[in-house]
Amino acid sequence: MRATILLTLALVSAGCSFIEPVSPWQKGNLARPEMTFEGDALETKFLEHIYQSKESASGGLGVGGGGCGCN
Predict the structure, then answer these.
(1) Taking residues 8-14, what's their average pLDDT?
(2) How much is the CA Rg of the chain, to the nearest whole Å?
(3) Is the pTM of the predicted complex or chain greater than 0.70?
């Protein structure tokens, strides 16, 4: 059992060695605004507005306090 686990780990480690690094001309594609987690800044603000409207609170994104007025 232990030998099987070691053999599997060795094969997985060897498989990772074939990954090529990203070329400099490919990094431009990764830096495009469409590749960010947030996406469009205007769309992010719009979604935050909808979230705050549904939760009936302002500043609910990482800020203390809520819609009840208790800060």
Answers:
(1) 83
(2) 23
(3) no
